[in-house]
Design brief:
heterodimer; A: about 120 residues; mainly beta; four-stranded antiparallel β-sheet; globular; B: about 110 residues; six-stranded mixed β-sheet; three-stranded antiparallel β-sheet
């Protein structure tokens, strides 16, 4: 059964870079029918898609975050990672990683999801 | 402001039927892209409830169903139960943004 687990610092200082890693277990990360995505949820608010990456490194990014986001993949470790630069308090959120169904020209539903990890931006 | 619009809240009595709407535009739902629905229980990760407009993953009760028409989609829940009281989100693909978009979420209250 596929499982995803987020890891990384729970506290980041303003203006610094948020870094998280998602480790995939129970199945291959190299399937061409899936991408691997990051989604965040500020406390008490809704879901916001951050970006997604394929096993070969092709990416989709949320345009509103694109200038600050970088997503990478390491298939040998079955991990993909998120970096968000120049963070502010507005970036405080629970961050989820998830597998995303992919087609030739779009990405679709997310399933399964990791349990999520709260990252707080504060000095 | 979310690209997909959902009502902030809906309510219904046990046993009743409720629907949650998800309104998009010509660059997402109206362009023919599929709509997916998630259920998020308090303190937990979202769970895929409906995919590709009207398909249920294994284990999801048939009380949950989805539909799509034009630039909108709907999630219907029949035989409402107390355990259904939680948050629901719709999601689709947007060609103008070249990425995934979510609705703002709807809180369902079982009266």
């Amino acid at each position: 059964q596929l499982q995803l687990q987020e890891s990384g610092p729970g506290l980041v200082k303003p203006s610094e870079t948020l870094s998280l890693t998602c480790t995939v277990s129970g199945d291959s990360i190299s399937s061409s029918t899936y991408y691997w995505g990051w989604i965040r949820q500020p406390p008490g608010k809704g879901l916001e898609w951050i970006g997604s990456i394929s096993h070969s490194g092709s990416t989709y990014y949320n345009p509103t975050l694109k200038s600050r986001v970088s997503i990478s993949v390491d298939t040998s470790k079955k991990q993909f990672s998120l970096k968000l630069s120049s963070v502010t308090a507005a970036d405080t959120a629970v961050h989820y990683c998830a597998r995303q169904k992919a087609h030739s020209y779009r990405v679709d539903w997310f399933d399964p999801w990791g349990q999520g990890t709260l990252v707080t931006v504060s000095s | 402001q979310s690209v997909l619009t959902q009502p902030p809240s809906v309510s219904g009595a046990p046993g009743q039927r409720v629907t949650i709407s998800c309104t998009g535009s010509s660059s997402n739902i109206g362009a023919g892209y599929d709509v997916h629905w998630y259920q998020q229980l308090p303190g937990t990760a979202p769970k895929l409830l409906i995919y590709d407009n009207n398909n249920r993953p294994s284990g999801v009760p048939d009380r949950f169903s989805g539909s799509k028409s034009g630039t909108s989609a709907s999630l219907a829940i029949t035989g409402l139960q107390a355990e259904d009281e939680t948050d629901y989100y719709c999601q689709s693909y947007d060609s103008s943004l070249s990425g995934s978009v979510f609705g703002g979420g709807t809180q369902l209250t079982v009266l």
